[in-house]
């Protein structure tokens, strides 16, 4: 009997071991499946696979790994609440787990994404792994530089008064636009305590100089034989000639600007070499580069070196985001939409809008910004219709479905010639007198007569409008043609206005980084230039966009700078 009991007991033990082995194998299989799904970016499936084994009760020794992978998948799906909950559980229940520092690091990132800054900083402060120190500092700087509320930043500084990364980020935010004279004692104390560059103190005060230095980075295509001029880069020489003529004009008025040209070609390596030159640190302004990739690359270096930079041709406001040192000479497409909406709401009695827009990026950006600004002001958008001019440029269906009798303004945002012709034809047939806002390019459409546009109630968004009948324009054109044997182009006027405006701003306000720029004021050839928004904040693109209307056969600016 005793022998039988012993045999049964041994059999029971063997059965338990087999069950345990089978359970471990199943848990390991699920964990490995979860890893594969995360690698394949199938995050929802990964979360479903890992969740059942993420707690100690069900996952045993596999739980911390499963919980971490689950949190990674949740983070990448932007399910920050789920990731936060799981990481909190993981860190609490597995304080001796080998990957704890990675979990704390991930938790800090999740909390930053949730904008829970204090919890995020506490999570990162608990990391003991020294090898992660640089990555932790980089993460803190990245998210703190995105923080837009000064009071919140100051509160966090009080909670972590010895955190050098926070201090450096706060000093950068101060010189990037937060600074007031009340901040000077604190900034001076931080510079002393943390041995920061004393340039922070200089950049918070405008520095007056007898002469200002401007670097111009353009693809001149210089070779041993000199500058290669062809049709592809003729606009570059036109633009630079405008800069030089503005420099001469400023000199005659007692304002000295030194211009230093650099040939970038279209080469990122060459742009890097130029932007990292020690002499660039002496520049009060960098103009260019102009090509999108090179400009974005150079702007990052400019931000690191606190160099003021202006892009002369871009109208994309997104390129300036996160970089307080980069400005646009042009009015961005987004600002064009906002200013057009403000004009329409303030000018036309009926506060309803019909918006038809093309599928191109600029057209959708304009239309979206128009709608948001118009609605915020109190207007109502009764039609918001996208079209595809490449597939079908007939806007009759979109406009025919709208109630034009009750519309205060019709916006047709497309530079396509077929859309312009179709719109004019539709409105003529109905003898419509509803105000219509359209791009300036419609004035150059050979299929539409000037008298047709005059008959209709057309308004033209014209950010680059130059009145060729302006005596100043005619005088400049004559002098320029005499000197260069060629008339000035639109790029020549842009070069002149850029250097004239920024040169005057430096003379009047002194050097500071970022620059201190004035509100909208009349320009020499342009209708106006200025960088202050309607609520008094400094913008990073030109805030004035002319709107034209044909009156008695002549183009008039209906929103002149006063």
| Structural class by secondary-structure content | alpha/beta
Number of helices: 22
Q: Based on CA inertia axes, which overall geometry fits? A: globular
Kindly report the oligomeric state of this protein. single chain
Arithmetic mean pLDDT? 87
Report how far apart the termini are. Answer: 112 Å
As a percent range, the share of strand residues is 5-15%
The residue fraction in helices comes out at 40-55%
Numbering strands along the chain, what is their spatial order in the largest sheet?
9-8-10-11-12-13-14
Uncertain parts: 1-22
Radius of gyration: 31 Å
Main sheet?
Answer: 7 strands, mixed
The total of beta strands comes to 14
Describe this entry's structure for a reader:
This protein has 562 residues and is of the alpha/beta class. It is 51% helix and 12% strand. The protein contains 22 helices and 14 strands. Helix 20 (450-455) links the parallel strand 11 and strand 12. 38% of the residues are buried.
Map the helices and strands.
Blueprint: H1 2-39, H2 43-50, H3 56-59, H4 63-76, H5 80-93, H6 100-113, H7 117-125, H8 133-146, H9 150-159, H10 164-178, H11 184-193, H12 199-203, E1 211-218, E2 222-223, E3 226-227, H13 234-252, E4 256-263, H14 268-275, E5 285-287, H15 292-304, E6 309-311, E7 326-328, H16 333-347, E8 352-358, H17 361-377, E9 380-387, H18 396-400, E10 409-413, H19 417-429, E11 436-439, H20 450-455, E12 458-461, H21 471-484, H22 490-509, E13 547-551, E14 554-557
Parallel strand pairs: 1-4, 1-5, 5-6, 6-7, 8-9, 8-10, 10-11, 11-12
Antiparallel strand pairs: 2-3, 12-13, 13-14
């Amino acid at each position: 009997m005793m022998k039988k009991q012993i045999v049964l007991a041994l059999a029971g033990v063997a059965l338990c071991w087999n069950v345990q082995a089978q359970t471990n194998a199943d848990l390991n299989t699920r964990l490995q499946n979860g890893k594969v799904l995360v690698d394949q970016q199938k995050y929802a499936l990964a979360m479903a696979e890992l969740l059942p084994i993420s707690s100690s009760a069900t996952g045993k020794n596999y739980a911390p790994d499963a919980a971490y992978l689950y949190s990674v998948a949740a983070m990448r799906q932007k399910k920050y609440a789920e990731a936060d909950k799981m990481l909190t559980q993981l860190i609490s229940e597995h304080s001796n787990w080998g990957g704890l520092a990675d979990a704390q690091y991930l938790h800090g990132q999740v909390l930053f994404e949730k904008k829970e800054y204090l919890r995020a900083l506490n999570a990162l402060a608990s990391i003991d792994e020294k090898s992660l120190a640089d990555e932790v500092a980089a993460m803190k700087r990245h998210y703190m530089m995105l923080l837009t509320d000064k009071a919140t930043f100051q509160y966090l500084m009080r909670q972590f008064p010895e955190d050098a990364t926070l201090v450096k980020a706060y000093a950068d935010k101060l010189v990037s636009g937060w600074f007031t004279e009340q901040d000077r004692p604190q900034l001076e104390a931080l510079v002393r305590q943390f041995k920061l560059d004393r340039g922070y103190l200089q950049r918070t005060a405008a520095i007056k100089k007898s002469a200002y230095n401007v670097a111009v980075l353009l693809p001149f295509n210089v070779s041993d034989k000199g500058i290669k001029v062809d049709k592809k880069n003729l606009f570059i020489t036109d633009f630079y000639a405008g800069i030089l003529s503005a420099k001469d004009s400023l000199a005659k008025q007692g304002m000295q600007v030194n211009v230093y040209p650099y040939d970038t070609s279209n080469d990122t390596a060459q742009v890097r070499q130029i932007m990292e030159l020690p002499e660039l640190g002496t520049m009060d302004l960098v103009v260019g580069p102009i090509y999108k990739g090179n400009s974005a690359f150079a702007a990052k270096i400019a931000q690191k070196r606190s160099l003021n930079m202006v892009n002369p041709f871009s109208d994309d406001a997104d390129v300036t985001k996160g970089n307080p040192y980069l400005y646009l000479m042009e009015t961005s497409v987004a600002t064009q939409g906002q200013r057009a909406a403000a004009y329409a709401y303030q000018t036309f009695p009926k506060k309803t809008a019909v918006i038809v827009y093309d599928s191109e990026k600029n057209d959708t950006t304009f239309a979206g910004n128009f709608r948001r600004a118009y609605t915020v002001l109190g207007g109502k958008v009764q039609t918001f219709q996208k079209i595809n001019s490449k597939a079908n440029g007939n806007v009759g269906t979109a406009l025919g479905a709208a109630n034009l009798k009750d519309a205060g303004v019709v916006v047709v945002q497309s530079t396509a010639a077929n859309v312009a012709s179709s719109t004019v034809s539709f409105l003529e047939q109905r003898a419509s007198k509803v105000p219509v806002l359209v791009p300036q390019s419609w004035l150059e459409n050979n299929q539409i007569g000037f008298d047709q546009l005059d008959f209709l109630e057309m308004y033209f968004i014209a950010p680059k409008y130059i009145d060729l009948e302006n005596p100043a324009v005619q005088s400049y054109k004559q002098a320029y043609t005499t000197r260069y044997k060629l008339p000035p182009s639109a790029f020549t006027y842009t070069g002149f206005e850029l250097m004239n405006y920024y040169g005057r701003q430096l003379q009047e306000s002194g050097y500071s980084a970022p620059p201190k720029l004035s509100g909208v004021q009349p320009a020499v050839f342009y209708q106006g230039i200025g960088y202050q928004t309607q609520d008094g904040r400094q913008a990073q693109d030109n805030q004035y966009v002319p709107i034209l209307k044909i009156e008695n056969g002549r183009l008039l600016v209906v929103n002149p700078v006063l």
